[in-house]
Amino acid sequence: MSNNVKKKSTIKKIIPYIKRYMVFVVMSLIFAAGTVGLTLYIPKLTGEAIDLIIDKGFVDFEGIFDILFKIGLFSLIASLMQWFMNYCNNKITYGVVKDIRDAAFVKIEKLPLKYIDTHPHGDTVSRVIADADQFADGLLMGFTQLFSGVITICATVGFMISIDYRIALIVIVLTPISIFVAKFIASKTHDMFKLQSVTRGEQTAFIDEMIGNQKVVQAYGREDETLEQFDEINGRLEKYSLRAVFFSSLTNPSTRFVNNIVYAVITVVGAIIVVGGGISVGDLTCLLNYANQYTKPFNEISGVITELQNSFVCAARVMELIEEETVTPDSESAVVLEDADGSVSLDNVSFSYVPEKELIKNLNLSVKPGQRIAIVGPTGCGKTTLINLLMRFYDVNSGSIRVNDIDIREMTRRSLRSSIGMVLQETWLKSGTIRENIVMGNPLATEEEVIAAAKAAHAHSFIKRLPNGYDTEIGEDGGNLSQGQKQLLCITRVMLTKPPMLILDEATSSIDTRTEIKIQKAFDALMEGRTSFIVAHRLSTIREADVILVMKDGNIIEQGNHEELMKLGGFYNNLYNSQWA
Amino acid sequence: MRQIWMYMKNYKKETVLAPLFKMLEACFELCVPLVIAGLTDVGIRNGDKGYIAKMGLVLFVLAAIGFCCSVVAQFFSARAAVGVATKLRHNLFKHIESFSFTEIDKVGTSTLITRMTSDVNQVQSGVNMLLRLFLRSPFIVFGAMVMAFTIDVKSALIFVVTIIVLLIVVFAIILYTIPMYKRVQSALDRVLGITRENLTGARVIRAFGMEDEEIEEYDNRTSLLFKLQVAVGRISALMNPVTLFIINLATIILIWTGGIQVNDGRLSQGEVIALVNYMSQILVELVKLANLIVTLTKAVACGNRIEGIFDIQSTLELKDIIENETKDNKDISSSEYAIEYDNVSIKYSGSQEEAMKDVSFKIKKGETVGVIGGTGSGKTTLIQAIPRFYDVSEGCIKVNGKDIKDYSLEDLRNRIAVVLQKAVLFKGTIRENLLWGKKDATEEEIYEALDNAQAREFVDKKENGIEEMVEQGGRNLSGGQRQRLTIARALIRKPEILILDDSSSALDYATDSKLRGAIKEMSDKYDTTVIIVSQRATSIMHADKIIVLDDGEVAGMGTHEELLENNQVYKEIYMSQNALK
Question: How many domains does chain A have?
């Protein structure tokens, strides 16, 4: 029941997308009706023509010529209309899917980070790609087959009744049997399919685990054992697949068998009626032809309906994504932050990702322009969360964060973010050239500026050695660059933008210490006069900070510069000594 | 494709019987028009109701036999298809296991997984369809033609011409659209790429305010996809209308010439009906065929992609090793050195520069050696060449005085235990994971390894001790716990050579130092040669010998004190990390 409601509401959601192609939909329906009508009329004409061929010397050539001419003309028109119909259907389906995909992507750009962080990316991607594709397939099939199928059924019934209502009745009564047969088989095979897909899932997980960690498998020479385990799952899958494939493939022969029997019955009954003088031989030929045409859509429609159901499930998944809540839009009165001086204050900030687990509680902090703030603390203490809040990737639950003495919720996100340069531990590069990646924050940068930034980040020398220098294409997610090289590029990217504030979250974790020291100098130059937040594990970096925040369990437990904190003899002192003992 | 044929050969019986029974079914179907012709010419003409009933019975029997044949055919084809897929997966998995790291890096895990799962599934349904229908349809088409010959040679010639024309049209459309479908696929891949990128890079994209540019780029890509889809749709949508038109045209000619012949007394009315029926049978089959071709084209494309994986050969040169050379083994134990590098250079495929150039050194048995260097200095490359994860491009590496290429891979890797940077555990209990290191390890050995790896404490705290379940990828353990278990897994082997590749990075200083102590003890006890790779100077400063790498070359070698005295690179690294003291 709830399933039905869900299906209905999915259809409701899809309708606006289809409406844009209303012209094509109407045209497609007209062409479909025309095609079906004409294709079905042709057998009737064929029957009439055959009735004119009686026996030696009894052939009405003039009559035949007239009929044949009509057949030729109608089949030409029918073919053209069918082609137009197909064309319209293509336009509708691919158009609708494109629009849905576009809407989904626009949504992705506006989703709260919370959604992106908590939902597997693979799942979202498969909604936009695979589900949308499946939906397109189903929609196309629905348009081309469902509608013309229904028209075919109605039209054949009409034609058959016009020839002989008794035979028409037999056909109408007997044919649905094949649908029941098909339904019966489908319900029986459902469980087998389920078992098959569960086993497939298990196998995929195994492949993912073993191929993904092939290096370990090889290091321990576990190839044979792994293969054995794989074969065990593979064997089970074979068994289940065989059952599912075989039993489901019985549908076609079974329905065909039923149809053939119907055909035999009509032939006998029809022939007897002909003998009794009710109809002509041509009429019988024509009836048999219609009986064939009539049963075909029934078989197809049951397939189309499963396909459509499937496609609606897929559509529902895409729609779910499109209907996700977006981030609250910038308020009407939001100001554009310009020339931020770099003062930041946190006022009683509380925040948690999940309501049950409070993370940051009543956090207060005041940062003067140009100060360097280092954040230290054990994993999970809320360092990265603080950055998420500063960049407004997440909104605070209570309290406020102010930049330039303006609440960051009262300024546009874009202006806030463009005032902050950010380098994260997890490097991210888009597929494209090295240059495209560097100028991301400053598309108008000149060649000199780009090279200067790269030199400052110590990235110039390795870029120069790449096959095409700055124009080298890098694959998805940095492809063939090393982790350290990727990080250097991310640093270059920020070097180029020169924002008034900086956030460095373990920005140099993958870079060796020697290079780090060199980059640190560049950072020092960059940070001069800029407010900066640094998350680092190397205490050498931290020591230089104006203010060190020691965080634990979402609270700032110690605050001060290096000397002060060492004197305090608390958590920081411990941490420092343990690293250098 | 070639390869898939080979697999089908394993199912000779099924591959032959499935189409054979399909053809038998088709034969019975082809008899139907003949029965009808007899029924009209004899039964109706003579008003013989008994004859009509008899023919009706014949139709029923034909349907029943046809049904049985087709069930048998479905069974054999399902078995062959599922069997081929199962074998294919087995061999693929085995083949992938033989890959060296070079191939795995190049192809990528996700591609390998897709090949093994969805691509193989496509091949399975392709084989199934091929056996079931692809032979049946042409058989009916040609069968109908042959039957036409038995009725009337002159009319049969119309069939010949029609079929030739149809073949040309169908193949022209297929050949024209295949490359177009490929372009559609790659356009879809690009849409997928940008979707993934925008999920993984959501923070960076928003930080730089690139949302609108990304939406625009996305729209460009979906528009291109749409254009390509409509273009290919326009052509493939021709298939049905054109065949419909050609068949109708043929029917017209058939009736006209049939009429002439009946008029001359060379044909009967029933025979003309039979001919027209055969023509419409061809039409029905061709429509089915057109739908099949899509499935088959997809399967072929997937088959080719799978073949691409099979075509990749492991770059490791494997010699046939005869294991039982006792004399050789004596040589091994007599060698003074555990590992010797002799002018070794390593170049990764596709990269222009050598990752390691001309490296030579010797490590004595039982020695502990530290390897240190900056990011990209070649530390990992250096040690991964020992168990032959990668092959050297020049020079040679000797283990126990024997070239590693002269060992069997199994023998070589059995002597070595490597702990990789990424701490990987597998789904299963802790015990099962540890047994990877040594299949027949005793309880004492397991606990000894846990003790040495400093893992005993936390394992004992687990509810089920060593029987505690580890989730896939070890998600339910912390980074440090995972790392210690991977170390335990290596220690349990009591290998001749133990290699730790920066594998204690997640451990705090105290645990790290305890671990080093335990390894030292073990090394003394079992004469194990230990190689420790690290970025931290403190982790390796107590080693018997330290190898300093810089940019793929050996920059220095010696003890901590020696290097500190006269090696600039080492001094820099050390000072950068310990300047605080």
Answer: 3
Residue A1 lies inside a defined structural domain of this protein:
yes
pTM (2 decimals)?
A: 0.70
Max mean pLDDT among A73-77, B146-150, B176-180, B194-198 falls in: A73-77
pLDDT, tens digit, for every residue of A467-521?
788 888 886 656 567 767 888 888 888 888 888 888 888 776 666 666 777 677 7
pLDDT digits (tens, 9 = 90+) for A389-420: 888 888 898 899 999 888 998 888 888 888 88
Query: Token pair of B172, please?
Result: 């022209």
Shared domain for A129 and A251, answered yes or no, is: no
Separation of alpha carbons A537 and B450, rounded Å: 28
Q: How many domains does chain B have?
A: 1
The shortest C-alpha distance from B392 to chain A (Å) reads 17
Q: Are residue A271 and residue A305 in the same domain, yes or no?
A: no
Beta partners for residue B548, in sequence order: B372, B556
CATH number at residue B540: 3.40.50.300
CA terminus-to-terminus distance, chain A: 67
Asked if residue A342 belongs to a domain, the reply is no
Note whether A540 contacts B579, CB cutoff 8 Å. yes
Tell me how far apart the alpha carbons of residues B500 and B532 are, in angstroms, rounded to a whole number: 5
- The answer to whether A204 and A327 have CB atoms below 8 angstroms apart is no
* B376, B382, B388, B394 alpha-carbon torsion, rounded to 10°: 100
ipTM: 0.79
* Residue B258 belongs to a domain: no
* Closest among A486, A472, A463 to A433, alpha carbons compared: A472
| One domain for residues A450 and A557 | yes
Question: Is residue B455 classed as helix, strand or coil in its secondary structure?
Answer: coil
Q: Could you list the residue range(s) of the whole structural domain that residue A495 is in? A: 370-381+419-580
B195 and chain A in contact, CB less than 8 A? yes
B206-225 b/e (C-beta count within 10 Å ≥ 16 → b): bbbbbbeebbebbeebbeeb
The pLDDT tens digits of the residues spanning B61-93 come to 999 999 999 899 999 999 999 999 999 999 999
| Residues 20-59, chain A, touching B (beta carbon < 8 A) | 39, 42-43, 46, 49-50, 52-59
In A20-60, alpha helices (H): 22-51
Q: Are B389 and B100 in contact (CB under 8 A)?
A: yes
Within-domain flag for B37: no
Look at residue B77 and tell me if it is in a domain.
Answer: no
Are A375 and A470 in a shared domain?
yes
As a residue count, chain B comes to 581
For the stretch B430-452, pLDDT in tens is 998 898 888 888 989 999 999 98
* DSSP string across B65-91: HHHHHHHHHHHHHHHHHHHHHHHHHHH
What ranges in B312-429 are assigned the alpha helix state H? Answer: 326-334, 379-384, 409-415
- pLDDT value of residue B580: 44
Say which of A242, A540, A579 has its CB closest to residue B509: A579
Q: Could you report the per-residue pLDDT of A422-444, keeping only the tens digit for each?
A: 887 777 888 788 898 888 878 88
- The candidate with the shortest Cα–Cα distance to B206, out of A470, A387, A334, is A387
Number of H helices, E strands in chain B: 24, 12
In our burial notation (b when 16+ CB lie closer than 10 A, e otherwise), range B109-136 reads beebbebbbebbbbbbbbbbbbbbbbbb
Judging contacts by C-beta atoms under 8 Å, the chain A residues touching residue B208 are 417-418, 440-441, 493, 497
CATH code of the domain containing A454: 3.40.50.300
CB B545 within 8 A of CB B369: yes
Collapsing DSSP states into helix, strand and coil, what is residue A348? strand
Q: Average pLDDT, stretch A107-117?
A: 86
- d(CA A270, CA A231) in angstroms, rounded, equals 58
The closest alpha carbon to A295, from A171, A158, A183, belongs to A171
Q: Of A268, A431, A512, which has the smallest distance from its Cβ to B52's Cβ?
A: A268
* pLDDT tens-digit series, residues B250-268: 999 999 998 898 888 888 8
